Amino acid sequence: MQKLIELGSDMAALWGEYWKSYLNGIANTLILALVATVIGCLIGFVCGILQTIPHSKSDPPVKRFFLALIRVIVRVYVEVFRGTPMILQAVFVYYALPYFTNNQVRFSNVWLAAIVVVSINTGAYMAESVRGGILSIDPGQTEGAKAIGMNHFQTMRYVILPQALRNIMPQIGNNFIINIKDTSVMFIIAFTEFFAVHRGAVGATYKYFPSATIEMIGYLCMTLTASFILRWVEKKMDGSDNYELVKEDQLVLTSGTYNHPQKGSPFDEKSKEYRERLEQELKHGRNRGER
User: Fold this and answer.
1) Nearest alpha carbon to residue 29 among 179, 226, 203, 229
2) pTM score of the predicted model
3) CATH class assigned to 2-238
4) What is the largest CA-CA distance in the chain?
5) Nearest partner of 63 among 53, 76, 78, judged by Cα
6) How far apart are alpha carbons 280 and 201 in whole angstroms?
7) Angle CA(25)–CA(26)–CA(27) in degrees, nearest 5?
8) In angstroms, rounded to a whole number, what is the distance separating the alpha carbons of residues 84 and 86?
9) Do 86 and 182 contact (CB within 8 A), yes or no?
10) What secondary structure, in 3-state letters, does the chain show?
11) 149 in the Ramachandran plot: left (φ > 0), alpha (ψ -120 to 50) or beta?
């Protein structure tokens, strides 16, 4: 119990001294994770769509060559960035330019470098998620869209992608939560996010565990809030759970039963045609065909 009281006291002291830095780190972490997730999703959608462009042996050789080349490039990109740690990707992206250009070209803004690293990493994961989401849609819907004259672009835009987006929405949320945590490796390029603030506080006070506890609580609060919001968005996309079936369609008009507001139908006494026919019958009687 004494240790818990001591831990609480150290955490309170750290928060009282560095609360502005902690909050700034939290804000930077959330902004980086959100922006990088959005850009990564766009990259993933482009890569996923490129991988699912249909082709056949009857297509021109040039088209087949370029589609095959695009798929190879996307596959290499996905495997490289899914198969290596983000911290090493940050090192290569941030330090490769000055290394190969003798310091002539470098990132002038660490924010830009961090967004590029997290975005391309997220895009690699999202590319496979989008490809799987597109392939999960019933092929019959694609055939139906083509049957009514839609081209591939229209089919993807109006039929396939809206459904695929709903299917991969949990994965988008999962990537956002992962990015909130994985931005902690951006300290390697001197980006001031939540974990970098923790390292600075520890270097000044040597209170590693109390500061780490603050970090753990902060990350947990961010991820739980993100999970709650994403579940709410998913629920909104699903729509209502209860639907009332329409038992009678007021717009369906049965032949011979529609009554004009003034004329009526041809079969009732309000109709001008009915009255004229009745007068003729009274004068001349019915003919054989009408008896």
Assistant:
1) 179
2) 0.75
3) mainly alpha
4) 117
5) 53
6) 106
7) 90
8) 7
9) yes
10) CHHHHHHHHHHHHHHHHHHHHHHHHHHHHHHHHHHHHHHHHHHHHHHHHHHCCCCCCCCCHHHHHHHHHHHHHHHHHHHHHHCCCHHHHHHHHHHHHHHHCCCCCCCCCHHHHHHHHHHHHHHHHHHHHHHHHHHCCCHHHHHHHHHCCCCHHHHHHHHHHHHHHHHHHHHHHHHHHHHHHHHHHHHHHCCCCHHHHHHHHHHHHCCHHHHHHHHHHHHHHHHHHHHHHHHHHHHHHHCCCCCCCCCCCCCCCCCCCCCCCCCCCCCCCCCHHHHHHHHHHHHHCCCHHHC
11) left
Question: By the 8 A CB rule, do 48 and 70 touch?
Answer: no
Lookup: tokens for 247 = 């038992």
Nearest to 111 by CA among 61, 186, 26: 186
Q: How far is CA 175 from the centre of its chain?
A: 10
Q: What are phi and psi of 14, to 5 degrees?
A: -65, -45
**Hey, what amino acid is at 99?**
Y
At residue 288, the pLDDT reads 47
The full set of domain ranges for the chain reads 2-238, 244-286
% the chain with pLDDT above 90: 27
Q: Where are the beta strands (DSSP E) in 141-223?
A: none
Q: How far apart are CA 160 and CA 180, in angstroms?
A: 30
pLDDT digits (tens, 9 = 90+) for 34-73: 999 999 999 999 998 888 887 777 778 888 888 889 999 9
What is the DSSP track for 10-62?
Answer: HHHHHHHHHHHHHHHHHHHHHHHHHHHHHHHHHHHHHHHHHHT----TTS-HH
Nearest residue to 152 via CA among 49, 10, 77: 49
